[in-house]
């Protein structure tokens, strides 16, 4: 009860200082406010970007490996001419992997044809991506349906003229939502819509099925040359759940070298790409951004801390008479010390709360402008308030200690 009474009294002193010296106090609080705002805003922005990018990476599938011509990541001195001379993954590679792999849960062969028009009667969608894949595409990628279904093994094997379409395409061609069962025109051919993908929205890596048309690979043979590197052929392998990614990758590397008859010592003429490569790079990038944001915010908080300390020294000077009276009436040194220390903490908490309020309001502004859901989690809020308390303790301890050591007689006699 004594502590609560002391806290209440100290907070009232702080509030009284705010009322009587509004400009001075607000200028001093500005540093803490800007510092907390900067640090929490940077952390929230990083968490938001990390979450959005990680959601994009998760679409690639856990324990999935992409056999492609080009690697996803390059070093500063990468020999691009060697990569350029590599052959693209072909259907023979895919068939051999299906026969030989013991670590794969599913394997799919895929191609992509970009920027095509899709028509239904008088409605047209421009800039759609036409993807063709073998049967196991639904097992190597993560997606769901808003309506309809994936194509059956029979449809895949016979090359049936059926497609699954993205949510945006379905909305544009069929405003009434009755896409399944309708025939649309794709690359000059009529095909039947059997499924509509669930809406995913745009992500940071541009991975989305909203404007995609997916058809069986064997049907795409009638439309394009699936062996051409113009259509970015790739093989996607998802490993068995009880095996590590490294085990799957090691087996695939050995099998691909065997399939392509590469002699020992000869470099691989293929790339094994995986989502963890992107995740690891994102972690390094965001760790660096966090450090930079902490440094920038730290300087602001440091300036704010000096401002709070200055206010506390002035407050001690203005209330020297009161301190002398309190001590003459029996107030202990720790009572005086805590009184001014709690006042400093209260002032810093005010600055921290104002900074958090600005961040909170900023999340709505970003949502309205860019339609991005900003992450402001409880961890960042607790960190911001904890930082405010620590700054309050550091900036207030010296003025509070000096106040507690005042001689009561000299304090009463001071002007």
From TrEMBL:
| Keywords assigned by UniProt, alphabetized | Cell membrane, Membrane, Transmembrane, Transmembrane helix
Principal place of residence: membrane
Q: How does it sit in the membrane?
A: Multi-pass membrane protein
**UniProt cross-references to InterPro entries, sorted A to Z:** ABC3_permease_C, MacB_PCD, Macrolide_Exporter_MacB
Is the keyword Transmembrane helix in the record? yes
Q: Which residues form the MacB-like periplasmic core domain?
A: 25-253
- Enumerate the subcellular locations listed in this protein's record, separating them with semicolons: Cell membrane
Transmembrane segments annotated in the record for this chain: 27-46, 291-313, 334-361, 381-403
Query: ABC3 transporter permease C-terminal domain spans which residues?
Result: 295-408
The UniProt family comment states: Belongs to the ABC-4 integral membrane protein family.
Quote the PANTHER family the UniProt record gives. Answer: ABC TRANSPORTER PERMEASE YTRF, MEMBRANE COMPONENT OF TRANSPORTER-RELATED
Descriptive protein name: ABC transporter permease
Which species expresses this protein natively? Mucilaginibacter gynuensis
Taxonomic classification, please? Bacteria, Pseudomonadati, Bacteroidota, Sphingobacteriia, Sphingobacteriales
């Amino acid at each position: 009860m004594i502590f609560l009474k002391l806290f209440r009294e100290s907070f009232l002193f702080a509030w009284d200082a705010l009322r009587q010296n509004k400009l001075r106090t607000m200028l001093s609080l500005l540093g803490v406010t800007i510092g907390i705002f900067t640090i929490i805003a940077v952390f929230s922005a990083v968490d938001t970007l990390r979450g959005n990018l990680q959601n994009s990476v998760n679409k690639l599938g856990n324990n999935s490996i992409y056999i492609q011509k080009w690697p996803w990541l390059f070093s500063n001195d990468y020999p691009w001419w060697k990569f350029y001379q590599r052959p693209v993954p072909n259907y023979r590679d895919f068939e051999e992997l299906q026969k030989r792999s013991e670590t794969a849960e599913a394997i799919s062969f895929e191609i992509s044809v970009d920027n095509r028009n899709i028509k239904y009667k008088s409605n047209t969608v421009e800039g759609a991506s036409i993807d063709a894949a073998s049967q196991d595409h639904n097992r190597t990628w993560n997606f769901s349906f808003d309506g309809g279904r994936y194509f059956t093994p029979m449809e895949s094997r016979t090359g049936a003229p059926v497609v699954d379409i993205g949510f945006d395409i379905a909305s544009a061609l069929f405003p009434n939502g009755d896409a399944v069962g309708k025939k649309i025109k794709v690359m000059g051919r009529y095909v039947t819509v059997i499924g509509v993908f669930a809406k995913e929205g745009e992500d940071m890596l541009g991975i989305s099925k909203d404007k995609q048309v997916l058809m069986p690979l064997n049907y795409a043979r009638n439309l394009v040359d699936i062996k051409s590197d113009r259509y970015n052929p790739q093989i996607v392998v998802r490993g068995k759940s009880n095996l590590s990614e490294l085990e799957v990758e090691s087996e695939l590397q050995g099998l691909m070298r065997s399939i392509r008859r590469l002699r020992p010592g000869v470099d691989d003429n293929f790339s094994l790409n995986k989502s963890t490569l992107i995740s690891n790079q994102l972690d390094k990038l965001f760790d660096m951004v966090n450090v930079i944001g902490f440094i920038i915010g730290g300087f602001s908080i440091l300036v704010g801390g000096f401002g709070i300390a200055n206010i506390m020294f002035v407050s001690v000077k203005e209330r020297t008479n009161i301190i002398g009276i309190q001590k003459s009436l029996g107030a202990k040194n720790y009572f005086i010390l805590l009184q001014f220390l709690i006042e400093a903490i209260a002032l810093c908490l005010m600055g921290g709360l104002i900074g958090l309020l600005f961040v909170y309001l900023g999340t709505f502004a970003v949502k309205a402008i860019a339609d991005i859901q900003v992450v402001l989690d409880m961890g960042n809020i607790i960190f911001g308030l904890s930082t405010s308390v620590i700054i309050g303790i550091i900036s207030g301890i010296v003025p509070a200690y000096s106040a507690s050591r005042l001689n009561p007689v000299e304090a009463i006699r001071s002007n």
